[in-house]
Specification:
7-stranded mixed sheet, mainly beta
């Protein structure tokens, strides 16, 4: 079992930056593929960024490429999402997720564990 707790959300203005953190506890955290998803009311939960267990491979949604950076510190059982040049359309609840699948995947059905989410609101 893996427990995920997100932090770092908040209310910012367009163009600002935020860094989200997700601390994991449980078994062999370092072997999980980790991801950040986001969801807005009435829409599906979509992958924003994914990172392999080693940190050597990443995936980004087209909408955040060049602005967001995912990273992980396995010694601290933590995954981060650095968000720069935020836009109002980035407003959403952001969820941390862990998958026992060792390949990079943006498919939410492949993720076994989820955090409770942290709200990010970007005002124009």
């Amino acid at each position: 079992q893996v427990s995920l707790v997100e932090s770092g959300g908040g209310v910012v203005q367009a163009g600002d930056s935020l860094r989200l953190s997700c601390v994991a506890s449980g078994r062999t955290y370092s072997r999980y593929t980790m991801a950040w998803f986001r969801q807005t009311p009435g829409k599906e939960r979509d992958a924003v960024a994914v990172i392999s267990w080693s940190g050597g491979n990443t995936y980004y949604a087209d909408s955040v490429k060049g602005r967001f950076t995912i990273s992980r510190d396995n010694a601290k059982n933590t995954v981060y999402l650095e968000m720069n040049s935020l836009k109002p359309e980035d407003t959403a609840i952001y969820y941390c997720a862990a998958s026992i699948v060792t390949i990079i995947t943006s498919n939410r059905d492949r993720y076994n564990y989820w955090g409770q989410g942290t709200q990010v609101t970007v005002s124009s």
